[in-house]
Amino acid sequence: MPSPSVPLDLAVGGLARSALAWLPASTGGAALVLDLHGSGFDAARHVAVTGTPAWVDEHTAVVVAPTAAVPLQFKGVRQPGFAWSIPGVPLFGVPPGTATREVDDTAYLTALVEHAHREWGTDADRVFALGWSGGARLLSHWAGQEGCPVTRVVCVSGVRTPPAPPRAGLLALHGARDQINPWHGLDQPRWAESVPTAAQAWADGLGAKSVVRQASPADEVTTWHAADDSVVARLHRLAGVGHAWPGTADAQQRQLFGEAGSVRATDVAADFLFA
Question: Is the pLDDT of residue 229 over 50?
Answer without folding.
Answer: yes
